[in-house]
Automatic annotation (TrEMBL):
GO molecular function, one term: proton transmembrane transporter activity
UniProt entry tagged with the keyword Transcription: no
The species this protein was found in: Paramuricea clavata
This protein's name: ATP synthase F(0) complex subunit e, mitochondrial
Organismal lineage: Eukaryota, Metazoa, Cnidaria, Anthozoa, Octocorallia
Oligomeric form and interacting partners: Component of the ATP synthase complex composed at least of ATP5F1A/subunit alpha, ATP5F1B/subunit beta, ATP5MC1/subunit c (homooctomer), MT-ATP6/subunit a, MT-ATP8/subunit 8, ATP5ME/subunit e, ATP5MF/subunit f, ATP5MG/subunit g, ATP5MK/subunit k, ATP5MJ/subunit j, ATP5F1C/subunit gamma, ATP5F1D/subunit delta, ATP5F1E/subunit epsilon, ATP5PF/subunit F6, ATP5PB/subunit b, ATP5PD/subunit d, ATP5PO/subunit OSCP.
C-alpha cells in the first residue's frame, strides 16, 4: 500500500534535486579549465616517459659492454 506523502515534502524533494543538478553543472563548468590544464601536464609527462623509454631501449640494443 502506497503511503501518501505531503505535497510540501514532495516539493522539497524535487526542489533539492533540481538545486543539486544546478550546483553540479555550475561546479563542473568551474572545474573544466583546471581539468584541461591537468590533462595537458599529464600528456606532456607521458610523452617524456615514452621518449625516455625509447632512448633506453635504443641504448640497450647491442651496446652493452658485456656483449661478446
Amino acid at each position: 500500500m502506497p503511503v501518501t506523502v505531503s505535497p510540501a515534502i514532495r516539493f522539497s524533494r524535487y526542489g533539492a534535486l533540481l538545486i543539486g543538478i544546478g550546483y553540479g553543472y555550475k561546479r563542473n563548468e568551474y572545474l573544466k579549465p583546471y581539468g584541461a590544464k591537468d590533462r595537458k601536464v599529464h600528456e606532456k609527462k607521458a610523452e617524456e616517459q615514452a621518449e625516455l623509454k625509447r632512448l633506453r631501449e635504443a641504448a640497450n640494443e647491442g651496446k652493452s659492454i658485456f656483449d661478446s
